[in-house]
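Supplementary Methods, section 5.1.

A reviewer requested that the exact input to the structure prediction be made available. We therefore reproduce it here, unchanged from the version used in the analyses.
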Amino acid sequence: MAEHFTNRQLVLGGLVAGAALAGAALLYKSSQKTGQKKTYKVVGTLETIYIHPVKSCRAIEIPKGQCTKHGLVYGALKDRHWMILNEEDRFQTMSHEPTMVLITPSLSEDSRYLVLNAPNMPPLKIPIDLNKIPVGERQVIETRLWRQNVTGKHCGQEAEAWLTKYFGKPMKMIYGDDDTKPREVGNAGRAVPIGKKGDLMIYQEDAGFNLMADSSLVDLNSKMKASLTARNFRPNFVVSNSQPYDEDNWKYIKVGDVVLRHVKYNERCKVTTVDPDTGKFSNNNDPLTTLKTYRMCQPEDKPLYHDAPLFGVHLAIDQQGTVTKGDTVYAVYE
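The structure derived from this sequence is encoded token-by-token as follows.
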């Protein structure tokens, strides 16, 4: 029988944060504009930072990043600001095309191009400034991302031809640059409202950032035959030295000079079943099969999460700034 938990209380064995951080009595007090103080407790260390420039393509591990109102930024690369569309201008993910994960994005040495590499393909260079593509190829494309209408700038015919050759079917790419209107988290069309006014995102799902604890992954792997990595779950932040699933209880998180706020749990889909090294789906639908045995929401939360298992958390930003690998992670508990 699957175990259930709510936003307010975990019932996964009564886990208490801090056991792995004996002596973590360090407290961090922060004042909001209202003057109300939040007391932060040390909960772990920022072990890994990932940025995913192209939605559903390979992640890049980075040493530090800027946390902005539109998501994580590393130089000219922005998290989930590029997106692949099919011939009908519908967005594509690994659920549709699992070999997307084998496309590796990077930044050119002069920081002027997004570079894509993929098996048996020559490198593709896409200008960051799309005013550099031919005038006749410039256009704004409208599409729909989950429950919201979005737009993006077409990345040109060269990118379209490259993607079409790689996938063996017509594909194109759009870029949500600084001129692109961001999506409001609160207008995501959820049956249950999420986020606050002013929470923004481009092509991310549900919030600008997501986080998981590596101890949660260790616990999950202990219940399965195969061992997964954090890359299966596509987080921005992986926290070490915390208790399994303790991230569920962190209402506010402070890393470096950045303050993040819990929006919702991350409900998991078929994307997690894709092997990030081979681009193939798992044979037994894990980790979803295993997660469904113990990581389901309470019945009253089904309008939000439906029948998806939960792993990791979505976060919005309250204070912009810089995060660096190795930073101490503080949290305010629910």
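Residues 157-167 form the longest helix (11 residues). These observations are discussed further in the main text.
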